[in-house]
Every structure is written in structure tokens, then in C-alpha cells.
Amino acid sequence: MSHYDPVVYSRMLTSITLGFHIIYATIGVGVPMLIALAEWMGIKRKDPHYLLLARRWARGYTITVAVGVVTGTAIGLQLSLLWPSFMLVAGQSIALPLFMETFAFFIEAIFLGIYLYTWNRFKNPIQHFMLLIPVVIGSSGSAFFITCVNAFMNTPRGFNISDTGKLTDVQPFLAMFTASMPTKAAHVLATAYVTASFILGAMAAMALLKGKNHVYYRKALKITMVAGIIFSLATILIGDLSGKYLAAYQPEKLAAGEWHFETERYAPLIVGGVLDSQNKVHYALKIPFALSILAHGLPSAEVQGLNETPKDLQPPLWIHYMFDLMVSIGMLLLFIGLWFVIAIRRRRKSVEPAKPLNKLLLSLIIVGAPLSVISIEAGWIYTEVGRQPWILVGFMKTVEGATKSGQVDLMLWVFVALYLVLGVSSAYVLRRMFKHHPAEEELKEEV
Amino acid sequence: MSYEILGITVLWIFLYGYLIVASIDFGAGFYSFFSLITGKRHRIHPIVERYLAPVWEVTNVFLVFFFVGIIGFFPETAYYYGTSLLVPGSIAIVLLAIRGVYYVYSQYGNRNNKFYMFLYGVSGLLIPASLSIVLTLSEGGYIHENNGVVSLDYHALFTSGYSWSVVVLAIVSVLYISAMFLSYYAGKAKDKEALEILRRYALFWSVPTILCSFWVFFSIQRHNLEHFNKMVDNAWFFIASFICYAIAVYLVWKRRRLQVSFVMVMLQFGFAFFGYGKSHLPYILVPYLTLHEHFTNKSMALALVIVFLLGLLVLVPSLYLLLRLFLFDAHYVRGKLSKK
After folding, report:
1. Angle A408-436/B86-108 helices, nearest 10 degrees?
2. What's the Cα-to-Cα distance from A445 to each of A215, A338, A438, B95, rounded to whole Å?
3. How far is the C-alpha of B100 from the C-alpha of B88, rounded, in Å?
4. Distance between CA atoms of A376 and B3, rounded to whole angstroms?
5. Average pLDDT over residues B65-76
6. Interchain CB contact of A157 with B (< 8 Å)
7. A297 with A245: CB under 8 angstroms?
8. With an 8 Å Cβ cutoff, are B104 and A100 in contact?
9. Residue ranges per domain, chain A?
10. What is the ipTM of this complex?
11. Which of B50, B132, B226, B328 could form a disulfide linkage to B170, CB 3.0–4.6 angstroms apart?
């Protein structure tokens, strides 16, 4: 690049930090919920397998949480380092949920520390389980509060701007509860639980595929897949509501994502395809009326097209692929989960219930784990790039929010190196951890 | 009490909290590594590990609380410090990341990996050095605003005696606070062997700690005379700090009442830290940001204060539970409870 532009580098660095952090953050939000489910089942059914499951998941969770915490701290500081002008405005208008998030983070950190070190310290196992509830509330609360901030960036309100450019009439609670907040927060939480279900399910599926046939793995697979289906269904329902939200509040984001160029009724949903230079869609699958239904719940409803948004305020059109990727993976995950449930129901009736599960199904569950993470990434890219050119819709463009300092390019490389080290090392440590302490060993000890 | 005084006091208390818990944490990491290379590992490592393991994540939150809180109460800090701190801030992030994950890796993953211990031991000492730069910058003379462009004068920063005195004090006091705390913890665990080693570390670092404190005190005189004069006006903070220091060191020397000794260490730094903070006001960044002119709007301030008070209702009992289980529980401290 011949010309140094801090805005471009700030955007690159922020997207790399967020793209990396979101993997660990999603695991950090989702896994405590699954640990809680497993420990609860273990206590209720007096089944040591579920308790061991909770214990082993918690052990691995410490590694991912460490990366999540440090990258979360990184993005927290980078917001000020890379977007000082934006944070000047954000500090005055949306500081409340950011501040609340630190309390949620505190509670999570404190109780996670206690939980991990008190497995044998209470006489009644329920007391140990209770320690996990603040961890679940804290981690999900963090996600909720941070999503409030992101929602504010999409549909800002709760302040006015005077003629001199000063913020007046700030209403912190109004800024926190904006139009996009409910669908966004629900979507973030539900998908985090889906992703955690598939990541943990894939671990069990991998063991079963390798020929380990202990009932421990089957139980792991069952609890994760059932949770996966429930949260997938919730995700699809929330996704439908998100479409209606977008149509009402950010029609340009929906239009760009769906390649819907002209306002019309009976709008079809375009899946895949390519655009030519005249913005004509080729090779796409068109589902009749589906966009009208997604946007307004009626096949005859009118959907606003991109033609009503000035050219310089339109988001880039390639986000269409991100939307398609996100949705198709979401559908696939639900399909995998349903197949699994049908498979085990049939087995229960069959004569040999210990027969191994279908290998293709197990492989699909394993592939589901990285796919769910890709879906999360695609979703975030869709919503973040879909907000462009704005950083704070209607008030501040991304260009105006960025730092003016030099050296952002150098910092970009420093952080790329850091994330490479963190990503590779955490995967290595996790692999080693589970390999050196196979579940079979611990199963022998327990029985 | 006005909102801005309340706001800055809350932030300063949490930064003080970070100073204490992070010093213990970073110093302990370093001693862990140091004991490994000097072959004393088996003697002090169990003590260090028993304290550190359950609290590492909490330490980090104190820092996050401070920088999120300051942007809420004083949004313009994001603009001035954010713009000028890009490089030093990024270095601090990298160090915090390395320190955090490699501690956890060696704790839960590859136990006893020497390279991991080296990474978290050494990065732990560099973090206070890099974070202390922010306090140096706040004294003015390093950050400039010309035609609306905020920039950091690296030459002034690296050639200034004041900035180096702060860096050295930060590192030395980490080692001192940590050794003083671990001596107390070893005493509570009735681990005589560890206590003797840690006590020697504590006494050793007590000398440079007080020398560096004087060095910083008089460097301020040369760097920012106005601030220095205000510190002299508030001299009783620093005199009280010195008395606490003397009591703390005396008690450790005599191996008596180590709990009181550590409380004295906390008071020593508490008095100095609040004396420094009080005399620093009204400036948050000399000469650009002041307490009253750059405070956030009334409604945000009120909302933040309400959330803070509600947050404390949850936070204080939780922290108390954490301390009771891992710091004040004699069985746990002596390692008589199974850990995992």
C-alpha cells in the first residue's frame, strides 16, 4: 500500500481482534451453560458420568477462558486506542452497559475461581453446583451488555446533538435499550449456546468415531445434541424476528444482505448467486415471497429496496454471502441435531442398542463444530460490515471515529503475531490436556 | 460530595486495588520462575500456587474496571490517552495477554514447563513498568496537542529522569509487595522453610522500595513543581506511609504478626497512592484534562453511580467469599484440602 491510512489499518486491526476474540468469547458464554446442564443431570440422576463430563469440560474451559479474558481486555483497550473520537462520544452516551459489563465480568471471574477449586469441598454437591450459576449469569450477562453497546451503534438513541456538536439530553437507560437490542442480544446468546453444544458434542463424536464405545461418550453426545437442537430452534425463531427488526429499522442492511435492489411487494429471497456490473443477479436460487415473509410476515408485504438509500450510504454488497453462509450453517446444524435424535430413538427400539452410531452422522457432528464457529464469524461480519459506512448510524462515520496516529500498521502485525501465538498455543495445550488425561482413566477411578 | 469527586475516588480505589492484587500476582509469578532457576522451587512454589490459582482472573478485572470506568466518568480521557498511547498501550496488551495465558497454560496444561514459567514470570514484571507510563504521562510535558492532533513525545519520555524513576519504582514495589504478602501467607500456612526464603526476599526489596519512593518524590519536584508543592502541602500522607513502611519491615524482620505487617504494607501504598492522587487533582492530564471541566454529563454520572452502588452489593460479598475460601481458610492455605 503506497499511502498510509490509519482508518484502514484501524478497521483491519479491530476486525482481526474481534474475529479472534469472538471464538473464545462464544465458547466462554456457551460452555458454562453446558457445564451447568451436565452437573445438574449428574446430581439429579446420581450419575457420575455427567459429573465427570462437567469436570472435564470445566478443565478445558479454563484454557479458553484465559484467551477470552486477555483478548477481551485487548479489545477493551483497543477501542480507545484505535477509535478515540468514537469513544469520546460513546463514553458520554453508552458507558452504562460497558460499566455494567465489568461487574458481570467480576462475578464470573470470582465464582469461576471458586468453582474450579472446590469440587470436593462441599458435603452437598448442590452447593458446588450453585457456584456455577453466577458464572453462567456473569458470562451471559457480559455478552448481553456488550451486545447492548453494539445495538446502540446500529440504532443509536438516548441523546441529542447540539449545534456546536455537543451531546445533550443524555438518557443512559434509553441508550442501552434500543430497538435492535432485544433481537441482537437474544441472537448472540442463543448462537453461543448452539456453538458450545456442537464443540463439546464434536469431542464426544470424535471419541466414538475412533471406536471408543463407553457409555460416557454417548451421554455426552446426547446432552450436547439435545441442547444443540433446542438452541438451534431458538436461534431460527430469533433470526426470523431479526429479519423483521432489520426491515423496520435498518432496511438498507437487509436490502444489501439480500440483494434486494428495488422496493417491491412479493419479494423473493435470493440465495447465493453472483452479480454482474449492472447489479443483475445470476445463478441464484430464488425462493418466492420468502423475503417479504422474513421482513414482514406476509407474502404480499412491501420490502424496501437498496434504491432508497443514497449510493454513498449503502453497505457493501458482498455481505450477501455472509448472510447466506450464516443461515445455511444454522439450518445444517439443526438438521444434524434432528438426525441424531431420530437415530437414538430408533436405536432404543432396536434389538442391539449398543450398536455404534452411523459414521456419517458422527462425522457431520464433528464438522458441525468448526462450521458453527464460521457461522458466528459470518454473522458478525454481516452485521458489522452491513453497518458501514457508519460507526454510529446517522451520527458518525467510521472514518471520523478512527485514530489519526501513525504506527497502526505496525501494531496490526504485532497483534497478528500475538493472535497466532495464542491460537496455536491454546489448541496445543487443550489437545495435550485431554490426550494426557483420557476420560477412561478417570472413569476407572470414579467407579 | 460532588459526583466528580465520588467518581474519581471510586476509580482511584479500584486502581489501588489493582496495584495491590496485581503486584502480589506479578511478583509471585516472578518468584515462581526465580525459584525454579535457583533450585528452590519445591520450597516456595506450593505456597505461591495455592494463592494464585483461584484469583488470577479477578486481578485482571480490577484493571478492566478502571479503564472502562474512567471512560464513563471522563470520556475525554479516551480521546487524549487513546490517541497518544497506541504503541505503549498495545505493548501492555501484548504483555498482559502473554502473562495471562501462559500462567493458565502452566497451571492447568503443561505443568512445570520452564519456558512457560519464564514467559509469565518475566512478562509479569514488564507489565507494571509499561502501565506506569500512564501515570508518568499524566504529569504533563509528554503529550501535546497541536492543531487538534494529539501526539506523544517519545524523546521526552525516554530521556526524562522522572519517567525512569516511576518505571523502577513500579518494578521494585511489585517484588516488595508480593514478597511481603507471600511471607504472610507462608506464615499462615506454617511453612517455616518457605517463610524464611520469602522473608529474605521481602527484606531485600524493602530497601530499594523506599529509596525509589524518595527518588520519585524528588523527580516530581524537577518535572512538575506545582504538583510537588501540593504534595508537600499534603505531606502527612507521605509521612504516614513511611511510618507504615517502617512498622511493616520491622515486623517481618522480627518474624512477628505477619498479618499486621501486610496490612501495614497496604496502608503504606494506600497513603502514598492517595496522597499522590489527591495532590494530582484537579488535573487528570496536565494541562488538558481536569476533574471538573471534563466530567461526563449529569445523567450519565448519576446512572453510573447507581449501577456502581448496586454492583457493590453483589461484588463485596462475592469477594469476601473468595477471600474466605482461599485466603482466610487455614485448611486450604496449609494445602490440606484437595485442590481439584
Report:
1. 0
2. 16, 34, 12, 40
3. 18
4. 41
5. 87
6. no
7. no
8. no
9. 28-178+405-447
10. 0.86
11. B132
